[in-house]
Design goal:
Low-confidence stretches: none
Strand order of the largest sheet: 6-7-8-9-4-3-10-11
Distance between the termini: 32 Å
Shape: globular
Helix content: under 10%
CATH topology: Metal Binding Protein, Guanine Nucleotide Exchange Factor, Chain A
CATH class: Mainly Beta
CATH architecture: Beta Complex
Mean pLDDT: 95
Order of helices and strands: EEEHEEEEEEEE
Number of helices: 1
Radius of gyration: 14 Å
Length: about 130
């Protein structure tokens, strides 16, 4: 089991089961919510358990997706697709301690910022 939280601790969670490898997303929405690209992992339905969620707010960022963040400190924590049967993506940097995660791919590379380069040999998908 792994735990995680937002910066102020208003949102705390536990992750049950195995985490999927992280995906680096370079889309405009991820860059706007984080200030850079994001790294996110994912769990199956029921494997994300909130131990504190009174400051968690969900924002409808597009017709298909919502983003979960803390309304006190502003930490971007989660992403979910309306058709994804309860799966939630968790921002890898919000997990406490060592995660053991490795980045498996870069997505939305066509939208990446011009101020950085992707220098690893991990697979890339433009959209």
């Amino acid at each position: 089991m792994k735990t995680g939280s937002c910066l102020c601790g208003g949102v705390r969670y536990e992750l049950m089961g195995d985490l999927r490898p992280s995906v680096a997303c370079h889309c405009v929405q991820c860059r706007k919510t984080s200030g850079h690209h994001v790294s996110a992992t994912q769990v199956e339905p029921g494997q994300l358990v909130f131990t504190s969620d009174e400051t968690l707010t969900w924002f409808q960022s597009s017709r298909a997706a919502q983003r979960g963040f803390c309304k006190i400190c502003g930490s971007s924590l989660f992403w979910r697709h309306k058709d994804d049967e309860g799966r939630v993506s968790i921002m890898s940097g919000t997990i406490d301690g060592a995660t053991g995660l490795k980045t498996s791919k870069h997505i939305f590379t066509a939208d990446k910022g011009d101020y950085y380069d992707i220098l690893d040999n991990i697979s890339q998908r433009e959209q």
